[in-house]
Automatic annotation (TrEMBL):
Record Pfam families: ADH_Fe_C, Fe-ADH
Gene3D superfamilies in the cross-refs: 3.40.50.1970, Dehydroquinate synthase-like - alpha domain
Domain Alcohol dehydrogenase iron-type/glycerol dehydrogenase GldA positions: 2-143
Keywords per UniProt: NAD, Oxidoreductase
Protein name: Maleylacetate reductase
Keyword Oxidoreductase in annotation: yes
Organism from which the protein derives: Nocardioides albidus
Length: 340
């Protein structure tokens, strides 16, 4: 994977496409990101074969099928995704299903562009997997494109990236290098996010946040996911919850459950956050950047929690502590009620 980073980097998307030898690129975005899609379409000039602006959260299979039809109709030999996790997830799905190489221009701080993890949702169930074919061939990070990102989206997407680093720190295949990247990524985001939320035009903070997202995403890309990601995948797929906000709400509660069994991860996070109580620091950061307090604030009904527990227990991810049903119920109850 090639990475281009810096203010104005989006001007180089045509160069990145040419490096891959692509001639007919499908531009992907959400409906709200039409202006960004138009920007890169103009920059690509004759290389842009068409656009698909139907990317949706959690990557529904029906959306992927519609994008496949457009890709076939325009004879696409690759795609360029500009936006956040929904659009990047769609690009991954097209790489997985059609083998289309992608160039990605992230405009949020979630960091998913750095992972080989894909996800597809059908009938309320989110299926995930890992495949190196879904990794972008080139990632173009331009902090200038994030200046219009609303404060609430900035904060929540940054917590999503921090969750990647937290789980990488106690993953069974973690390494000292991953720990170093995670510590730097969490510190960068914890420093930058409150500044970004306070002043969206703070270019230095925007750059630092994007760098932290890159590092945190790379951590998860090199390790395996744990209980936190499993819970968020089930909650998002089953209840169609906003992805980043779900991560921001759930993370402190899973950290409180897992970190006593992962002292090395706890030590790294205490240094990165400058705090002795990591779950409390994560809750404070989430509050400071506008993440809602509790899953009930996202519309989750209390009676939904049992179904979530059932699905998590049916296909668990690796975790420092194997959770029993009572453990899951306790985590979900606390995350549902909120704790601020």
């Amino acid at each position: 994977m090639r990475v281009v980073f810096g203010p104005g980097a989006v001007e180089r998307v045509a160069e990145e496409v040419d490096r891959l030898g692509l001639r007919r690129v499908l531009v992907l975005s959400t409906a709200r990101q039409g202006a960004l899609a138009a920007l890169v379409t103009d920059l690509l000039a004759q290389r842009a074969a068409g656009t698909f602006d139907g990317a949706r959260m959690h990557v529904p299979t029906a959306t992927v099928a519609a994008a496949q039809d457009v890709a076939a109709a325009v004879g696409a030999d690759g795609c360029l995704a500009i936006g956040g996790g929904s659009t990047i997830g769609l690009a991954k799905a097209l790489s997985l299903r059609l083998g289309l190489p992608s160039v990605v221009v992230p405009t949020t701080y979630a960091g998913s562009e750095m992972t080989p993890v894909w996800g597809l949702t059908e009938d309320g169930r989110k299926t995930t997997g890992r495949d190196p074919v879904v990794l972008p061939r080139s990632v173009v990070y331009d902090p200038d494109l994030t200046h219009v990102l609303p404060a609430a989206v900035s904060g929540a997407s940054g917590l999503n990236a921090i969750a990647h680093a937290v789980e990488a720190l106690y993953a069974p295949n973690g390494t000292p290098v991953i720990s170093a990247l995670a510590e730097r990524g969490v510190r960068d985001l914890a420093t930058a996010l409150p500044r970004v939320v306070a002043d969206g035009s703070d270019g230095e903070a925007r750059s630092l946040a994007l760098e932290g997202a890159w590092l945190c995403g790379a951590c998860l890309g090199a390790t395996t996911m744990g209980l936190h990601h499993k819970l968020c995948h089930v909650l998002g797929g089953m209840l169609d919850l906003p992805h980043a906000e779900t991560h921001g709400i759930v993370l402190p509660h899973v950290a409180a459950f897992n970190l006593p069994a992962a002292p090395d991860a706890d030590a790294v996070l205490r240094r990165a956050l400058g705090a002795d109580d990591v779950p409390a620091a994560l809750r404070s950061l989430a509050a400071a950047v506008g993440v809602p307090d509790g899953l009930q604030a996202l519309g989750v009904r209390h009676e939904d929690l049992a179904r979530v527990s059932d699905e998590v227990l049916a296909a668990p991810y690796s975790n420092p502590v194997v959770p029993a049903r009572a453990d899951l119920e306790g985590i979900l109850e606390a995350a549902w009620r909120g704790s601020r």
